[in-house]
Amino acid sequence: MTLIAVVVPATACVSAAFAQERQTKGPDGQWTLGIGAVVLDKPYRDFDREVRALPLVSYESKWISATVPTVDIKAYSTEALTLRLRARWVGDGYEAKDSPALTGMNERKSSLWAGGAATWRTNFANLSGEVLTDVSGHSKGTRVKVQMERRLAVGDFGFTPKLAAEWVDGEYVNYYYGVSQYEAFAGRPSYEGRAATNVQFGLRMDYSPSRHQSMFVDVGATRFGGNIKESPLVGKTTGAMLAVGYAYRF
């Protein structure tokens, strides 16, 4: 995996810091804006980590929850259970110039994914899941993710450990990690990807000195599934993620 573009877990920090107040506010929409930085890490061989600016834009209302690059329509919502229709732009993929190991490979494009999601809030933790399909038609794949997290508040600070597993089907793995016969050469054999399950774990830390402001650090790692690690394009068994930022809620 490419840590789901790395942007998704980072922008999740925007909503986490204000989660309790959002549950009780009225129907009027609310904007949150901020800026951060994220370290991009992909599993491809000889792929250098990149540090990029991360614009944070979030909008929350009774029926819409949007945090770039994800937009949710709240189909059903109570204090304990939320069902949503979800669309997300995911920056998977690469160009041949991104790494010497990718020389001669055709471009793999980023995709728009859409489907459904659910969140169940319990006294112990928040449980969530999503099922998304590549509606852009690039990989024609499907991904299914389940996650458990719990935010522990200590004064103005919040600490959120999280654990997730994501299954991606063979279409996804073959598109992003497969090697066709036309792309194969000595040292890079052809490879047909099959379904894989990636395990993700991390810790999100936020500090909210006022009801309008929040700062965060999000660290995490992904253990790639066996059918991804076996790809001749892949040189890592685990990928890391780091994001920091500041957000202001209007």
3D architecture notes:
- The chain has a single domain (3-249), classed as Beta Barrel (Porin).
- The chain has four helices and 13 strands.
- The protein has helices spanning 7-17, 19-24, 170-177, 226-229, and strands at 30-40, 50-60, 64-67, 70-77, 81-90, 111-121, 126-134, 142-149, 152-154, 157-168, 196-210, 213-223, 238-249.
- Strands 1-2-3-4-5-6-7-8-10-11-12-13 form a twelve-stranded antiparallel β-barrel.
- It is globular.
- The model is unreliable at 1-6 and 20-25 (pLDDT under 50).
**CATH class, please?**
Mainly Beta
The secondary structure category is mainly beta
CATH level 4 superfamily: monomeric porin ompg
Total domains, how many? Answer: 1
- Extended strand count: 13
**CATH architecture heading:** Beta Barrel
Oligomer designation: single chain
Query: Mind telling me the C-alpha Rg?
Result: 19 Å
Strand order, biggest sheet? 1-2-3-4-5-6-7-8-10-11-12-13
Query: The CATH topology is what?
Result: Porin
Percent helix among the residues? Answer: 10-25%
What best-fitting shape do the alpha-carbon axes yield? globular
